[in-house]
Amino acid sequence: MENSLPSIPAKRYFTIGEVGELCGVKPHVLRYWEQEFTQLRPVKRRGNRRYYQHHEVLMIRRIRDLLYDQGFTISGARNKMQELTQAQRGLRKDPANLNSLDDEAVHEDPSAWEEDDISEGRGVPLERAQQAVTYQVSSSLPTLRRELMDIRDLLSV
User: Fold this and answer.
1) What is the rounded CA–CA span in Å between residue 118 and residue 139?
2) Is there a smaller number of Cβ atoms within 10 Å at the N or the C end of the chain?
3) How far is the C-alpha of 108 from the C-alpha of 2, rounded, in Å?
4) Positive or negative, the Cα torsion across 85, 89, 95, 96?
5) CATH: 3.40.50.720, 3.40.50.2300, 3.50.50.60, 1.10.1660.10. Which one for 14-156?
6) Pairing state between β 43-45 and 14-15
7) For the chain, what are the domain ranges?
């Protein structure tokens, strides 16, 4: 997915048209996603014009990947983004948790679990639910690392 998209220029703000080109999504889709994904909040200035920051462009690419490439529904992608946001907050509060991850929890594939049970909190013990989040976070680490390397390259220019 990311290979077919253009690299993100080193700018502070991007217009909705620029973000559309960078992410392969039309502006009306971006406006719709703002309603569906609470994490996506571009700055609005003169005449209600939207200005997106770099981290929001990356978030839009992640949403696009979930919806278009991985086949998530809007609801499923929203839940996945919320889980990732909560997991990132947890790691920011206690980075020591990253070193104490149970190998079994990291490598266990929660896709065999009943999705309704997980989302409704039924039939899945808290420990297994935490393992699912751990698995999802660890599976997104290579993508996150690649994005951070791109940012570092942009900053070193």
Assistant:
1) 18
2) C
3) 26
4) negative
5) 1.10.1660.10
6) unpaired
7) 14-156
Question: Each residue of 22-54: pLDDT tens digit?
Answer: 999 999 999 999 999 988 999 999 898 999 999
Average pLDDT, the chain: 77
Structure tokens given for 44: 């609005």
Residue 102 DSSP SS3: coil
pLDDT at 103 over 80: no
Report yes or no: 20 and 27 within 8 Å, Cβ to Cβ. Answer: yes
15 within 8 A of 24, measured Cβ to Cβ? no
Residue partners of 53: CB distance under 8 A and separation at least 6: 12, 13, 14, 42, 43
Q: What is the pTM of this model?
A: 0.57
